[in-house]
Design goal:
Blueprint (H helix, E strand, L loop, with lengths): L1 H5 L23 H16 L2 H14 L7 H12 L4 H9 L5 E7 L4 E7 L9 E2 L6 E2 L6 E4 L10 H7 L3 E4 L5
C-alpha cells in the first residue's frame, strides 16, 4: 500500500542517475521511484526469502564500503538468478514508465501481451498473484494459455499494484 501510494510523488522529470563526473545529482525521484523499483523487482523475483537474502547480502558484502551503482545492480542480478540489467536501465536511466499492453481472450483462456514505452531489450518478468505462470514480456507480441480462474488477475489494478508499470488492456486482439 505504501509503495503504491508514494507513486503520486514520482515526477519523472529526469532520470534518477544523473551524468557521471560532473558533480550533478540525478532526480529527486531517487527515493520514491527507487522504492518502487525495489518493490517491482521483489514481485518479479516472486520469492520473498531470496529477495530478503539479496538485501541482507548487500549489507554483508558491501559493509562500510562506498559502492557503485554497477556493483549493486550486478549483485542483485546475481543473487536473483536473473539479469535485471535492462530493468535497472529502464527505471534508473530513463523517465519512461513501461507499459504492458495485453488482450485477454476469455473464450480461449489466453492472454496476448507485449511491452511498449520501454528501452530495447526491456525484459521485466511478471509473476501475477492469480497465476501459476511467470511471464517475461518483450516488445514482441506473445500469447499464453491460462486457467479460467487466472483471468481475474489480468486487470490493471491487480498488475499495477505489484509493479511500477502502466497497463493497457485492449478490446481487440492485436
Amino acid at each position: 500500500d505504501y509503495n503504491v501510494g508514494i507513486r503520486r510523488s514520482i515526477g519523472n522529470r529526469s532520470a534518477i542517475i544523473g551524468p557521471y563526473g560532473v558533480n550533478k545529482e540525478g532526480s529527486n525521484d531517487m527515493y520514491y521511484k527507487g522504492a518502487n523499483l525495489l518493490h517491482t523487482i521483489r514481485h518479479s523475483m516472486n520469492d520473498d526469502e531470496k529477495f530478503r537474502q539479496a538485501l541482507r547480502g548487500l549489507n554483508k558484502t558491501f559493509y562500510h564500503q562506498t559502492v557503485t551503482t554497477q556493483q549493486v545492480e550486478e549483485f542483485i542480478s546475481k543473487q536473483s538468478g536473473f539479469d535485471y540489467g535492462k530493468v535497472f536501465d529502464q527505471y534508473l536511466r530513463t523517465i519512461q514508465i513501461p507499459q504492458l499492453e495485453y488482450y485477454v481472450d476469455s473464450a480461449k483462456s489466453s492472454v496476448t501481451y507485449h511491452w511498449v514505452n520501454c528501452i530495447d531489450g526491456f525484459n521485466l518478468p511478471l509473476a501475477l498473484l492469480s497465476s501459476s505462470k511467470k511471464i517475461v514480456p518483450t516488445t514482441q507480441w506473445q500469447t499464453i494459455s491460462i486457467k479460467k480462474e487466472e483471468l481475474e488477475g489480468w486487470t490493471p489494478k491487480a498488475i499495477e499494484r505489484l509493479y511500477y508499470i502502466k497497463t493497457k488492456p485492449l478490446a481487440v486482439k492485436p
